[in-house]
Specification:
Blueprint (H helix, E strand, L loop, with lengths): L3 H11 L3 H4 L7 H8 L18 H14 L4 H19 L7 H13 L5 H14 L4 H10 L4 H13 L3 H4 L2 H13 L7 H4 L3 H10 L4 H9 L8
Length: 228
Amino acid sequence: MLRGGDHDRSCRVACVPWLIHGTQTCPDREEHVKRATVAEPGANRAARPTPPVTATYVERAALHYLERYSASVEMLRRTLRRRVEKRARARGEDASAFFEMIEATVARAVSAGLVDDARFATARLATLRRRGTSSRGASAKLSAKGLSRDAVETAMEAEREAVPEADAAAIEEKAAFAYAKRRRLGPFRRPDIRALHRDRDLGALARAGFGYDLARRTVDAEEVPDGP
């Protein structure tokens, strides 16, 4: 579609300049716009019907999702259901009629090793710990991703077993300091305002799932352990 600037240039080429007309606006503007307007491609075409839900569509949706994101089995299932429900709704169909198709696709993804709850839980837990997530917070976040309680507990047990026994007890402490660093609490505040915000910092750590004793040690720490 011709814009104002395009019309101005058209006037200079196709007719006399504006000033010869004696006005700032070309009197033939409407005619020039009409001649220069190009119909939008496909503007008059009828809306294309929504394609049907097929096994191929569901499989492609699964592969597209897994190429972009790491996911648990339940996350993949939820995503496919949303996609199918949207397409079925557009076609006036009952989405539940395709749920078996979704389950078959999820089962194939599991069999092919594209989704693995144990692997996902381990990797996700490590990411949460680096961000300063407490054990309580990590458990809640992993459960929200559709992981079972057994899968969450297994991942946390593997986390403890992956470090020497002396360091296992320090996992929560490192997470607390990582959280304090990210939020600039306690020893990560400016010295001149640290005491003023002590109670607020204790509350922030408690709400994040850390116990009171650990929160107090973190906020009152004079030295920061290596790592956070």
